[in-house]
Design brief:
Layout: H1 12-17, E1 20-24, H2 30-39, E2 45-49, H3 61-78, E3 82-85, H4 88-102, E4 107-109, H5 111-121, E5 126-131, H6 133-137, H7 140-148, E6 153-158, H8 160-168, H9 173-186, E7 194-198, H10 206-212, E8 218-221, H11 223-236, E9 249-253, H12 257-268, E10 277-279
Parallel strand pairs: 1-2, 1-3, 2-9, 3-4, 5-6, 5-7, 7-8, 9-10
Helix pairs in contact: 2-11, 3-4, 5-7, 5-11, 9-10
The protein binds D-glutamic acid.
Length: about 280
């Protein structure tokens, strides 16, 4: 009966039919949505990309918190059983606020699962986090890693230009390699054991980052560990859909259905059309 907590008066069966809400500043969180869909193919999903206000990574904490709160409220209004904050920046800045505003709705961010994945790869290791300016400023990954592994050494480096490269589709080739090389040279971490892809866009640059980084460095991405955390939360709340039918996917954006479909298709690994995307106001 635990599921009745989140949507009062609803039977467990109706509650479990509700979608999982996934929110990001734009299309980047589709990498996380894809991992959730792979792990939980029968779950219904609703995705919201706040494309009108992208990027979050260069904004102030106050603006990011306001944007994230509005986006989360929009998804809550749709009727959801769990919220995934797929944006690293919004997770770093606003996870605590979102959890307290939306309680008892379960809210899962991507920073904790990413930190857990890195510590599992190399306990006591040296980790380099590549992320947006806002995520680095708040040292969210450093705190999450050290809370799990006090012996770990963590450096964080802001790589804003990689967001644009991934959106542009310039994720390979010499231009991408030289920009990645410059960021890695500037980072205060010569020989990391892991590089944590602490931004939704960076998984698209996995091959390039791996080529440029020293051999033996393990790249860590939070998408699959976030999907595991979602699976765990639903199971422990007895909130999984009880069907073998494939779940539905609804996509909402605050601006630009055509661009969302064109760029988002690469992040989701599946062609999208503008007709698949509803433009909404927050
Ligand atoms: N989604 C953001 C993140 O993961 C990257 C794009 C942005 O700055 O909004 O941090």
């Amino acid at each position: 009966m635990a599921a009745l907590r989140h949507n009062q008066g609803m039977t467990n069966q109706r509650h479990n039919e509700l979608p999982i809400g996934v929110f990001d500043s734009g299309v980047g969180g589709l990498t996380v949505l894809k991992a959730i869909r792979d792990a939980l193919p029968c779950e219904n999903l609703v995705y919201l990309g706040d494309t009108a206000r992208l990027p979050y990574g260069t904004k102030s904490p106050a603006s990011i918190e306001r944007y994230a709160t509005q986006a989360a409220a929009k998804l809550q209004d749709q009727g959801i059983k769990l919220l995934v904050v797929a944006c690293n920046t919004a997770s770093a800045v606003a996870l605590g606020v979102l959890r307290s505003h939306l309680a008892p709705l379960p809210v899962i961010g991507v920073v904790e699962p990413g930190a857990a994945a890195a510590v599992a790869v190399r306990p006591g290791g040296r980790h380099l986090v590549l992320a947006t300016e806002a995520t680095v400023r708040l040292a969210a990954y450093r705190d999450a890693i050290r809370a799990r592994d006090p012996g770990a050494r963590v450096s964080e480096h802001a790589c804003e230009m990689l967001v644009a490269l991934a959106e542009e589709g310039w994720d390979g080739g010499e231009i991408a390699r030289s920009i990645v090389r410059r960021y890695l040279d500037e980072a205060d971490c010569r020989e990391p054991d892991t590089i944590i892809l602490g931004c939704t866009h960076f998984p698209l640059l996995t091959n390039t980052i791996q080529e440029v980084a020293a051999s033996g460095v393990v790249l860590v991405d939070s998408a699959s560990t976030t999907a595991e955390a979602v699976q765990h939360a639903l199971r422990s709340d007895d909130a999984c859909r009880t069907t073998t039918a494939r779940g539905t996917l609804r996509m909402l954006a605050t601006d630009g259905a055509t661009r969302f479909a064109r760029v988002g298709g690469r992040f989701l690994g599946q062609a999208l059309s503008a007709a698949d995307v509803e433009v909404v106001d927050l």
